[in-house]
Amino acid sequence: MGLIHMASNVKTSVAQLCKNLQDPHHVARFQKICGVSGTFSGISIERKCEQEQLYNGTCIKHCQGESDNCDIYADNEKVSDGHRQRKSTTTGNRVDQDGCKNGLLNGTGLTLGAGEAVGYTTNTFPSGATGVSSSENPTNGCGVERISDKDAASQKYKSTVKPMRKNSLTGDIGQEFVIENKFLYYLFTFGTELGNELFYITFFPFLMWNVDAYVCRRLMIVWVWVMYLGQCTKDVIRWSRPASPPVVKVEMFYNSEYSMPSTHAMSGTAIPFALFVLSYGRWEYPFTLGLVLSLSWCTVVCLSRIYMGMHSILDIIAGVLYSFLILVVFQPALEVIDNFNQTYQYAPLIIISLHLGMGLFSFTLDTWSTSRGDTAQILGSGAGFALASHVNHRLGLMPDPAPSQLPLAAPPFGPGLVGVCLLRFVLGMGAVLLTRAVMKALTIPLACRVAGVPADDVRKARQHMEVELPYRYIVYGSVGFSIHCLIPQLFRCLNLS
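Structure tokens predicted for Phosphatidic acid phosphatase type 2/haloperoxidase domain-containing protein:
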């Protein structure tokens, strides 16, 4: 009985800890420390409002004493800005406020500047009535606070911006927010880009063409499995993004997708640490340097997701631990998987069918969203790389250095090396973009025709699994194959290899 009681206490404590780490107010506090505040910053959410409905990344709150059947039309005047609307009536010693419907959707709020008054609220009372002055009631009864002259003067040192990209599913552009620390804003914007498509489509080619094809090949295997398992786990758990307010949505692109675990945190952990493990001993560099760079990479990516308002602390911790678990399992198997892709006679058939089957499985976990397409894109890229590995090995192209040549030393750094690397990268990326554009133009109409889906509206057509899966799989499979097989042979023909 003692052990059972202890286990029950541990379970309760862990559940309470997880609930606390998932609290969006921790995210909001971190954002405030980093100098991020939303347009709802003047609203006393914790003191004045009650959360009634929680959506995926947005919430609706009603002030105390308000009912759901209020109307946003006061005195027959229609207000369409989506903010909280009020009408004031005076009865003796009391101010009745009605006609109110909360508009705190996705961070929209109301803040009064110094000396300003709300156009639809009055603090003027008839003779003999006992009123409440703005100094005595700075919140106007519904959490709307006034900004002091000092705070208003400090606004000139702040930047008001909007999210850089709109919501990928709904097209919502998000609400304005205030940035007080531009260095952290740009640092964490860079950090979050380390987990986006633009980074992947430039990082892996550069590593393949200019650094080490062996390391890139195996790092791609790790990345595919980490991202695939992370996306599938999200669709199974189905936890929503942190609520706004109190969280400021600095990023909107992934706001309609699920949050647990953070796949940015997973890739931001797997890529640097797998790169460190694969390259250390193969290349000559200090152990401390590799460890510090890996930790710094991981830290910037993980903190950037909290800064952007996309993940709770629990999402980040789970993503990091999940990623390390996958690395521990897959690291010993990398040698076997890589050799299988290169040498087994029927590897191409198994590679294509395995990655396609994984894509079909992931599409059945939840309704359509942009994450389904991302999963197919990841699987297609991985399949293309694996097929290219097999072809290269069969044709004797791009052989790995002999063990006697290890460890490898970096060539002398100079203008010639930089020029050749840049030339390879520019020519190669041009070929990659051309391949993607051509395959996209061919694949979408063909997939629509085969699936019987109208191709007039491409965005709507791609919401069908029969279109999105083959489109992403074929296009990015071709891109992966080109990066690992065709483009290196182009460099060989141009004497750039």
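The chain is about 55% helix and 5% strand.
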